[in-house]
Amino acid sequence: MTNRHPARAAQRGITLIECMCVLSIASIVIGTAIPSLDSLRQRAQLLGVAAQLETDVQFARSQASALNTTVRLTLREADGATCYIVHTGSAADCGCAGPGGAVCGGTSDLLRAAFFAAGNPVQVRSATRSMTFDPVRGTVTPTATLRVEAANGRALHQVVNLLGRVRTCSPAARVGDERAC
Predict the structure, then answer these.
(1) DSSP letter at 171?
(2) What's this model's pTM, rounded to 2 decimal places?
(3) What is the CATH number of the domain that holds 146?
(4) Of 48, 61, 64, 157, which is least packed with CB atoms within 10 Å of its CB?
(5) Residue 46 to residue 134: CA distance in whole angstroms
(6) Total domain count for the chain?
(7) Which residues form the domain of 93?
(8) Residues 113 and 86: beta-carbon distance below 8 Å
(9) Quick one: pLDDT at residue 6?
């Protein structure tokens, strides 16, 4: 007669207690990693918007020279949302029409626009509402500091000088490889 139950030592697999221990440890590790992943995501968004803004400032500068006309970079804020518009014509001729885009009236031409909704984790702000790129002199007036701010409090400053060159710095905690302001 053969034994229908082989010895317990010969069985393979894991017990329910071992499985629960592994799941507990895994959930603790994942729980501690999630906040740092969110911070990493916001940092990447902050750096991306700052790079795009710097590119758009250079775009406005080059378009002024290429089109041989005055080009403006206009910033708008309304209801917690922000946007900036690269356009020709008067600063008052263009505005943000929400996530759908920007609109320009009169003889102004829209060249580029970026919109940041109220719930967006990154916003662009400035005390200067419009910068004018002169095609003849190759200058920008007024000079400005454009602030790219994340919801977690980190920020990057894009400092635009008289010649339209952009210098990036971080006002408080260092963000990326940027130097402190």
Answers:
(1) S
(2) 0.78
(3) 3.55.40.10
(4) 48
(5) 29
(6) 1
(7) 38-169
(8) yes
(9) 57
